[in-house]
Design goal:
Elements lengths: L3 E2 L2 H21 L5 E7 L3 H16 L3 E7 L5 H13 L5 E4 L9 H7 L11 H8 L8 H12 L8 E5 L6 H10 L3 E5 L6 H5 L4 E4 L18 E4 L3 E3 L2 E3 L4 H4 L5 E2 L6 H26 L5
Parallel strand pairs: 1-11, 2-3, 2-4, 5-6, 5-7, 7-8, 8-11
Antiparallel strand pairs: 9-10
Helix pairs in contact: 1-10, 2-10, 6-7, 6-10
């Protein structure tokens, strides 16, 4: 069987069209979805990700504003800004671009975002709901992966899924999304022994490591597997994924490219989460006029 490339750019375009329609409907009813982003410091990768997110928001009719704070901003100043955005009725989604500079208590910042504006889906309340099988605001990269698989009708139920990553941003929420869809899931990480032995059993293999010294080679992959490449690393100035695409793709049934795979889906799902957050707040507003 020949390999099918999972075209994230194409599917993200479809998701964005749906989001644009929903944003237009919400605006007609008097609420234009609105996203506020915060960057602390000047990490060039963060700057370029944020630029892409604002451009995408504008394309689908989501309003947005950016707050850029100096790297030496205090934790309390950042928390005060979050407090203002939490209570500002114009703002429906809040995104704090991670990673924050080392001096910050990142977990405390994540917990400061009010859960129904948490478009990154990282607040413990949203993460807890997801692990209890209730999907409200779900982290964008895992959500994008599942959407991409669904678009191409890649079966998930009863499949054996191996995820290489155990972070709250990728591996943990993704494991829960797959579990919620009746897959059998194994999560690997840097202390896993015999990684290839585990990954070779996977019907769906997701790799999200992003290290120059790490690569998924043919010996890691079962014939006809689905291979999802999330990891990003720069080698000699060039961006590459975790997967040795040229040598793995002839083995696979489905595979994502880098770039053009998971990346565009992540941005599209941020937009979808912003519209979802707007709907949640519109419903809350109807039930609770005091906005408490
Ligand atoms: P991270 O915090 O660096 O986590 C990396 C994960 O890989 C950890 O769970 C780590 O294990 C594991 N790992 C490291 N070395 C390993 C090894 N030799 N064998 C097996 N596992 C190993 O990164 P992250 O924030 O979760 O993101 C992961 C990657 O995905 C990064 O490259 C990031 O740039 C990329 N990413 C891409 C998108 C996109 O839209 N394309 C979105 C999000 C993230 P331990 O837990 O044991 O340390």
């Amino acid at each position: 069987m020949t390999v099918t490339i999972l075209d994230g750019k194409l599917v993200a375009g479809e998701v964005k069209k749906q989001v644009a329609r929903q944003a237009e409907n919400l605006a007609k009813l008097g609420t234009k979805p609105f996203l506020a982003t915060i960057q602390v410091g000047d990490d060039p990768a963060s700057t370029s990700y944020l630029k892409a997110k604002h451009k995408a928001a504008e394309e689908v009719g989501i309003g947005s504003e950016h707050h850029h704070l100096a790297a030496d901003t205090s934790q309390s100043k950042l928390e005060a800004l979050l407090g203002q955005l939490n209570t500002n009725p114009k703002v429906h989604g809040i995104l704090v671009q991670l990673p924050l500079p080392r001096e910050f208590d990142e977990d405390a910042i994540i917990e400061k975002v009010i859960p129904y504006k948490d478009v990154d889906g990282l607040h413990p309340i949203n993460a807890g709901r997801l692990s209890a099988g209730k999907e409200t605001l779900v982290p964008c990269t895992p959500k994008g992966i599942v959407k991409l698989l669904s678009h191409y009708k890649v079966p998930i139920a009863s499949q054996f899924v191996v995820i290489i990553n155990r972070t709250t941003l990728v591996g943990r929420p993704l494991a829960n999304l797959f579990l919620n869809r009746d897959a059998t899931v194994t999560v690997c990480h840097s202390k896993t022994v015999n990684l290839a032995q585990t990954t070779r059993a996977a019907d769906i293999l997701v790799s999200a490591v992003g290290r120059e010294d790490f690569q998924i080679k043919p010996e890691h992959v079962k014939s006809d597997a689905t291979v999802i490449d999330v990891g990003l690393t720069r080698v000699e100035g060039k961006l590459r994924g975790d997967v040795d695409f040229d040598n793995v793709s002839p083995l696979a049934r489905f595979i994502t490219p880098v770039p053009g795979g998971v990346g565009p889906m992540t941005v599209a799902c941020l937009l979808e989460n912003t519209v979802e957050a707007t709907k949640i707040q519109t419903r809350r507003g109807q039930k609770e006029p005091s906005n408490s």
